[in-house]
Model the fold of this input.
Amino acid sequence: MKNLQSLLVLIFFLVTASCTNATSFQFDGEPYLSQSFTINGPGDLMVETSGSSVSVTGTSGNTVTIDMYVKFKGKEIDREDAEVEELLEEYDLDFSQNGNTISLKAKKSGSWGWNSDNRLNLSFKISVPHTMSTNINSSGGSISLAELTGEHEINTSGGSIKVTKSEGELVTRSSGGSFRLEEFRGNVSVATSGGSVKISQVEGDISVGSSGGSVSLEEIDGSINASTSGGSIKAQLSNLEKGLTMKSSGGSITAVVPEGLGLDLDLRGGRVNTSLSNFSGEQKKDRVTGKINGGGIPVTLQSSGGSINLEFGGK
Done:
């Protein structure tokens, strides 16, 4: 029994180490392989990978450059290596162009045996025109986007997602891993089965659905619809013209909204903490319903067991 337990512990740490390597790739040195394409006007980047980290950055010009980095046995390889080339043959690896659509596919075609390419990690650093839209599907590995304008869709079974200094429409779905969004203009939809969500400096409407993990929203100018089955939700709005809805099955909820607005309040939780002026309605320990300043913008904060905190700050 002890031998079996020891084996299970060893397998756990091997899997954890493999996943960590796949999601924390650093782009150092020269790429193992590089390919460039020229497009004419706004384009689309289509990425499909299994276990690879992907970084996409907008640049000036009309060139798309894909740099592939390889780590073998924990070391970065920047030149042809016979053993690496043999392992790469087990991948369905393809870079292609169709009009203004650039496609990258890097998927393992064989089995993931303990003695195959668990030692081989691929990562992609991609530079594209600023006006490039993206569609990324990954079974693991971190994904980052920066300085892009367009429509962006990210689907991953694991690994973190980070988007910065971009605009357009963003839709992400993740089975695990954290999500970070900073300096974005446009509408955002986030669905995650686990991992924390942190969004800041956004002008646009936000929808967040999480099965677990905390949700933090800061400097938001737009509507918010956020829900989580576990963990807390915190939101600070620099402007509120539409609606604010935040719901949790257990964690606490805190919202800071601008002062002086007409609000329709529906606050329910284990305890409701707020200080109201010019209010008409019903105020109890665990429930507040009514209007501030004559009403207008709907604000719904609900938690099955956690506390509700509504605060007011300057615009």
